[in-house]
């Protein structure tokens, strides 16, 4: 067995060029999807207090923001609609309105950037007056009627040009229901990226503030995955693969590297990880207190996701790729 002094691993670390040669490269920008909050109106670009560097934008301003993102080579955008309370009702009907906010955004992005992939979040929490991810019955989310509505939302997005629909409601059977709805509408080529293992996490706070989607009663523990149950977390992704998902996803990302690695080892599907708002804000807060260099922390966190097996990184760092991620 070779050992010191013949073996000196520091030889492989002695220069930046050698470290790069033997190490894993940073994921390129095409591996990233940028999540964006779209709001009603025009000429609006409102900073999100809990997420410095991110903005809620109207459709016209979204296209302006995307000019730099597309130029950097970022792989796509993930759209979330943030609508006025007057649009919300118990059934979230505005979510599948043919002239809805997200539908308008899809049309505008595809017109201005025809080859740029557009992904859309498919859920009801931002469109219901109660803030839950599905229809309520006796104050509990009613699974089967909800998945029918999710199918309507997905079809309304795909019909106007969305390349990929991404259901996040964590309803049983939602992937099969959406796949069947897309097929019935002759939209079979639409990609289906499932939030297949989405945990009931404490890391969504900044997102819920920006998206105005906090539930008005109760919580989401009954339908989002429990972070202390690995077996169920794995089964969620296995089931969604069987129902017809094209891409699986783990959300959040940094606290769930073990889950990412386990799912990656069990599937041949592309695997995405959603580097969520709380993870984003956490690093910025540390840097603001001089507890770490922001770029170094961002790069280390992104490399951790790549090492664990992530193929696609959904991250708020995407619109700052050249500044904070790029070597």
CATH architecture: Alpha-Beta Barrel
CATH superfamily: Aldolase class I
Distance between the termini: 36 Å
Reading the helices and strands in chain order gives: HEEEHEHEEEHEHEEHHEHEHHEH
Fraction of residues in β-strands: 15-25%
Q: Mean pLDDT, as a whole number?
A: 95
Radius of gyration, taken over Cα atoms and rounded to an integer in Å: 20 Å
Number of helices: 11
**What is the fold named in CATH at topology level?**
TIM Barrel
| Overall number of structural domains | 1
Q: Roughly how much helix do the residues carry, as a percent range? A: 25-40%
CATH class: Alpha Beta
3D architecture notes:
Helix 2 (59-72) packs across helix 3 and helix 7 (230-243) packs across helix 8 (257-266). By secondary structure, the chain is an alpha/beta fold. Helix 5 links the parallel strand 8 (164-167) and strand 9 (191-192). It has helices spanning 16-22, 59-72, 101-112, 143-159, 174-184, 205-211, 230-243, 257-266, 277-288, 294-308, 321-325; strands at residues 32-39, 45-47, 55-57, 76-82, 118-122, 136-137, 140-141, 164-167, 191-192, 197-198, 248-251, 271-275, 312-315. The two termini are 36 Å apart. The model has no long low-confidence stretch (mean pLDDT 95). It has one domain (29-325): Aldolase class I (TIM Barrel), CATH 3.20.20.70. The radius of gyration is 20 Å and the shape is globular.
